[in-house]
Amino acid sequence: MSLHALEAEWKAYETLGIDGAYVDELPLPFSVQGAVMMRKQAQFHPLHYVKTLVDLAVKHGASFYEQTVAQHIETATRPIVQTKNGSTITCDTVIICTHFPFFDPSFYFARLHAERSYVIAVEAHERLQGMYLSANEPKRSLRYAVLNNRPLLLIGGESHKVGQGTNMMQHYEALQSFCNHTFGLSNVLYRWSAQDLVTLDHLPYIGPVRASHPNVLVATGYRKWGMTTSTVAAHLLTDLTLQKENSYAHLFTPSRFIAHPSLQNFVTEGIDVAKHFLTGKLEYALRTPRHISKGEGAVVNVNGKRAGAYRDEQGTLYVVDTTCTHMGCELEWNNSERSWDCPCHGSRFCFTGKVLEGPAIEPLQRIEGDV
């Protein structure tokens, strides 16, 4: 983002009446050319926030069922949800908030792409004042947390499409290098990554999963703004469920398709998927599972076919078919998460073959025997 774009954002703040300011100094150990600040921001602890919402929902009569995987929906006047264990649930309205929609009658996989981003938690000397997001590249976000009365500095960034990054550990190393160079801190206590979905026009899809299915609703494509967008989705989906008017419904409806930039992005995404599909199919691995060391994962050759192998620290070998069960793209090994990631549509699988992230719903085939 250029300085001109940042100034334009500040003008939008003024137009909307957002309580903020345009400044050229920040309480950070480096200088800035300009920054847009927002006063009276609230910083949430996500787990505490969600737990409070759950407690309130239960208090008002809601029920939660864990370990109950929904796999399909029969659309009718009253939709029927089918679960993995064979149970069915009949209801007036279904709301799908499963990150990637498990029910996909409108090719959401072609209108969303998945990105991973990374965070490190570093022991700090004092609490960071405020929360920050850089406007230029590479993106860096800064915020604080407290653990056992100790201040932590959380540094995030390094976003890339799933399955299309470099050596995944390099993303953590880049954040650690930035932290050490900028703040003089090096004691990394925790690190993790997250996956987010991005729509063609960068606005979330909130509303009927398809125009012909008004009683099956979806909320997805939050583009890393889950805490705020989920609140917007909750209000909008409540109104849609109760058949109330909402002036923002048309803005977020999943059935929208704007010629620009959505059409251009649709074509670009299709080309990117095709490129990675062909690259994976043409790759020929020279290594075999027997060459894999403890703690290592890699693409291998099993009887002339591409496969994936991982050997845990105890020496147990896990070999899987690396063909994604969603649409047949070839998976890539993610060494920082020990997972098999799809560069086409963002599905992720554990080294055992279990699905970690959709749109895939079926596990990878395990390859047993003498490999």
Secondary-structure map with pairings?
Elements: H1 3-16, E1 20-23, E2 35-38, H2 46-59, E3 70-74, E4 80-83, E5 88-90, E6 94-96, E7 112-123, E8 132-133, E9 140-147, E10 150-161, H3 169-183, E11 188-199, E12 205-208, E13 216-220, H4 226-241, H5 249-252, H6 259-282, E14 296-302, E15 305-311, E16 317-320, E17 332-334, E18 339-341, E19 348-350, E20 355-357
Parallel strand pairs: 6-13
Antiparallel strand pairs: 1-2, 3-4, 4-5, 7-10, 7-11, 8-9, 9-10, 12-13, 14-15, 15-16, 17-18, 18-19, 19-20
Give a verbal description of the structure.
This protein has 371 residues and is of the alpha+beta class. Among the domains are: 46-111 and 200-252, FAD/NAD(P)-binding domain, CATH 3.50.50.60; 258-371, Rieske [2Fe-2S] iron-sulphur domain (Rieske Iron-sulfur Protein, 3-layer Sandwich). The protein is 23% helix and 29% strand. It contains six helices and 20 strands. The strands form six sheets. It has a five-stranded antiparallel sheet, with helices on one face. The longest helix has 24 residues, at 259-282. The protein is globular, with a radius of gyration of 23 Å. 26% of the residues are buried.
Number of strands: 20
Looking at the overall shape, the CATH architecture of the domain at 46-111 and 200-252 is: 3-Layer(bba) Sandwich
**Fraction of residues in H or I helices:** 10-25%
Compute the CA-based radius of gyration.
23 Å
Helix count equals 6
Beta-strand percentage?
25-35%
The low-confidence parts are: none
SS class? alpha+beta
CATH class of the domain at 46-111 and 200-252: Alpha Beta
User: Biggest sheet, in brief?
Assistant: 5 strands, antiparallel
The CATH topology of the domain at 46-111 and 200-252 is: FAD/NAD(P)-binding domain
- Shape type: globular
**Helix-strand topology string:** HEEHEEEEEEEEHEEEHHHEEEEEEE
> On the 0-100 scale, what is the average pLDDT?
88
- In whole angstroms, the N-to-C terminal distance is 51 Å
The strands making up the biggest β-sheet line up spatially as 8-9-10-7-11
CATH superfamily of the domain at 46-111 and 200-252: FAD/NAD(P)-binding domain
